Amino acid sequence: MPTPHNSAGKGDFAKTVLMPGDPLRAKMIAEKFLKNAKLVNEVRGMYAYTGLYKDKPVSVMASGMGMPSMGIYSYELFNLYDVDNIIRVGTIGGISEKLKLRDIVLAIASCTPSTYADQFGLPCRPAAAASYSLLKKADEAAASLGKQVNVGTVLCSDVFYDESDSLAEWRKMGVLGVEMESAALYYNAARSGKNALCICTVSDCPLTGEECTSEERQDSFIDMVLIALETAVS
After folding, report:
1. What is the value of pTM for the model shown?
2. Catalytic positions, please?
């Protein structure tokens, strides 16, 4: 303590951390929802805060974009800062015809072409799956808030500007949407014996060209944050 990426000290993080990709979304969540929020990290602009939600300690920290960045920060939180639960609150590109802009997805599992899991030396790549306990609590929290969610599999890609034209094929496999962090988070949680869940809001639909503005992505995806916070304190 600290690490090259995190200036927080031992005990600065709550047992449950919400992780948006965007540092400014982390700042917004802390300022809008957490009481007595304290900034505990700002190395590389990856803001992290710890405060109270409904009088229970909760932290929020940015993960950055992509599996390498999520891999670093979630590994350190799980293994060096004694965090038990990480809930990603991020954006996702909707692939399924069932989804529209601003719909919420609970990622029960994440399929990925990434070689991230090869580091574990297994004979095949393991399934990247959410923790059932968090998934169940999030589903219940959404119902209590009167919010509809879509539960299913997502695609975790290393490529944002994808020229492979494969998203339509993933849709045929029932994949709900594509994002860039879930698999690394789920693998790190499994390896460390901890819990993880990805709650994402549809920010764009790449097969139709629909999309939200960058400002809407940063500030207006409140429903998934409330679901995550209620999950954190349940």
Report:
1. 0.95
2. 204
